[in-house]
Amino acid sequence: MIKTVLLDIGNVLLSNGWDTASRKLAAKTFNLDLEEFAERHGYLSALYEEGKITLNDYLDKVIFYEERNFSKTDFKNFIFSQSKSIPEMIELFKNLKLKYKFKLVALNNEGLELSNYRVTTFKLDELVDFFVTSCFVNMRKPDENIYKLAVNMSFSKPEQCIFIDDRYFNVETAANLGINAFQHKDYKTTKEKLARYGLAIE
């Protein structure tokens, strides 16, 4: 019996928040050196997602280390604007949760300000029971400890949980801990896989 669904947010309920495609678009939009941008992002992204630096700290070192012809607010607004909902996935989990009464736990890697924006804008707090987000717990997937924490916080056993993520390595890590896990690819296949665990809906 499944008691808890552990769910990634990026590319599952919402678009990815600040991925490679978004950064490439930012480089084009703001006329940035993409190679240098990518290198600086690589140094700072983990620290931001683990809640060890703020978004302002990240931007100061990645973008505003030299004078720009746009403001920090302009760039933040661009980052936030990259987030879009995936309505059919939100509706799927809303209906499944209503029918089967499982706990829905967000298990995702995200920086604080971006996470707050996404949760508030798309009202994810009305769907998700609680958030095990990297910026709150200072560790990221695929660290095994963040999975263990989410399972323990849900008062479930690994075999009573399903973990769903769009990245296979994250899924593999969960499976190695005894958690039922599969990779999200699209609405249809995820709905079918959930049905195999007894979470079926028309």
Helices and strands, with pairings:
Blueprint: E1 4-7, H1 20-29, H2 34-49, H3 55-62, H4 72-81, H5 87-100, E2 103-108, H6 112-121, E3 130-133, H7 134-137, H8 144-153, E4 161-165, H9 168-176, E5 180-183, H10 187-196
Parallel strand pairs: 1-2, 1-4, 2-3, 4-5
Helix pairs in contact: 2-3
Q: Describe the main β-sheet briefly.
A: 5 strands, parallel
CATH topology of the largest domain: Rossmann fold
The CATH architecture of the largest domain would be 3-Layer(aba) Sandwich
Broad shape: elongated
How many structurally independent domains? 2
Query: Quick one: CATH class of the largest domain?
Result: Alpha Beta
Widest beta sheet: strand line-up: 3-2-1-4-5
What would you report as the Rg, rounded to the nearest angstrom?
18 Å
Low-confidence sequence ranges: none
How much helical structure, as a percent, in the residues?
40-55%
What does the average pLDDT come to? 97
| Class derived from helix and strand content | alpha/beta
Order of helices and strands: EHHHHHEHEHHEHEH
What's the CATH superfamily of the largest domain, by name? HAD superfamily/HAD-like
Keywords:
50% helix; five-stranded parallel sheet; 10 helices; 202 residues; 5 strands; alpha/beta; DNA polymerase, domain 1; Rossmann fold; single chain
